[in-house]
Specification:
- Helices cover about 90% and strands about 0% of the residues.
- The chain has five helices and no strands.
- The protein is elongated and about 75 Å long.
- The protein is mainly alpha-helical and about 150 residues long.
- It has one domain.
Length: about 150
C-alpha cells in the first residue's frame, strides 16, 4: 500500500477521534467548567482578571460544537482521498477505523481520565485482528483475480 494512502487514512481516523472528543466537550458542560475552575484558581494566585467560568464554559462549548463539524469535514475529505490512494477501499477503511478507535481511547484517557480495563484492550485487539484478517483475505482475492486475467 502506498504510504500516502496510509497517512491519509490514519489522519482521517485521528480527525474522527478529535470530532468525537469535541462532541463530548460540547455536550458535557462539567468537563469544561472543571477545567475553567482549575485555571481560574491558578490565575487567582497571580491576581489576573479572568471572566466568569460560566461564560467561558459556554464559549468553549460553542467552539467545541463547531469543531465537531470542522473535524468531520476534514475527516471525510482525508478519507475520500485515502480511498483513491490506497490499493483497496478496505485498506483505507481498516486503517481509518483502527486509528479512530485507538486515538479515541487515548484522548479519553488523557483528557477525561477514563480508564480502560484489560478486557477493553483485549476486545480492541480482537477488533484489529479481525480487521487485519479481512484485509488479508481481500488482498489474496485481488491476487487471485490478477492471476486469472
Amino acid at each position: 500500500m502506498p504510504m500516502v494512502g496510509f497517512s491519509l487514512a490514519l489522519s482521517a481516523g485521528i480527525c474522527a477521534a478529535l470530532a468525537s472528543t469535541c462532541a463530548k466537550l460540547a455536550m458535557h458542560s462539567g468537563a469544561v467548567a472543571e477545567l475553567c475552575y482549575i485555571v481560574k484558581r491558578k490565575h487567582d494566585t497571580l491576581q489576573l482578571v479572568i471572566p466568569d467560568c460560566d461564560s467561558i464554559a459556554l464559549s468553549m462549548r460553542i467552539i467545541s460544537f463547531c469543531m465537531v463539524f470542522i473535524f468531520n469535514a476534514v475527516m471525510w475529505t482525508l478519507f475520500v482521498k485515502s480511498l483513491r490512494k490506497c490499493t483497496s477501499s478496505l485498506e483505507a477503511t481498516v486503517i481509518n477505523t483502527a486509528s479512530n478507535f485507538f486515538f479515541s481511547a487515548f484522548l479519553g484517557m488523557v483528557l477525561f481520565g477514563e480508564t480502560l480495563s484489560l478486557v477493553w484492550w483485549f476486545g480492541a485487539s480482537l477488533i484489529v485482528i479481525g480487521l487485519l484478517f479481512i484485509h488479508k483475505g481481500t488482498a489474496e482475492d485481488e491476487d487471485l483475480n490478477k492471476k486469472s486475467l
